[in-house]
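Researcher: Go.
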Amino acid sequence: MSEEKTRPSTAKTIAAIILAIVILVIAQIIAEVIGSLVVMLPGIPMAAGNAITGIVYPVFALLGVKLLCNRLLRMSLNDCKMPRFSLRPIWVAAAVIMPCLVSLVLCLTPGHWQNNMLNRSEISQIVTSAIFFSGMGAGLVEEMIFRGVIMSTLEKRCNKFVAIFAPSVLFGLVHIIGSDLDLPSIIQLIIAGSVVGILFSLVTYESGNVWNSAVMHAIWNIIMIGRILQISESAEEFTIYNYVLDTDSFLITGGDFGVEASIVAVLTYLVFAALAIYLMRKRGESVSEML
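Model: Structure:
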């Protein structure tokens, strides 16, 4: 089959992008409903409900993605950069180093620790939500959608440049939904979200699949937004550890969105994006043609 025949039309490309995001939303709703129903059963703790929600979420998303790829796009999961699960050690290491480095730098800035006296049940709720929902659930699903379906579709329709940058900007824009942000914070979020999206896109191309970027995304979420450690301008009640920043500089705090959009985080995204480019060049891949 020729490349022209496999190239999706503009209408099909737009439909695929919209449906991919709809799949993300529906899968999350289904997972949360199932998790809520489970904890209504006698003797089932909230932590178990969090774990079930985090497992069901990517399962339903993968089913939806497979259906979308096969029926609408006439592409396999392999075509959408979702082959058999495999990881490259360098990106597993980067997945841990990246959020730990950002957290360390931020905790070395002026501030103070404030720990909440939570009971065992509350701590288990936070930890299971961080690992299963924020990490395994959201991290895996968002990579399947943005770096799997959307990036692969745009690559076939346009080119790798569009495939890398368009989903990355969209990734930043999507995070504005439901957030109460002022204009500077919106701009800062779009920049940070786009840069980290480009990082995950480059990691996907360098490794050949979305699973490496998904692990990076998952561990980032667990450490940075899982409420095990909260780094912000004010202490949060339902958090195990709080590091309260004494500065109100939006470059450090990330503005209204938080430290994920801080200059510390953005510079870290750029460092690991440069690593992905270096590894591709080392293998002889033409990064200039891609970018």
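Model: Strands lie at 111-115, 229-232, 241-245.
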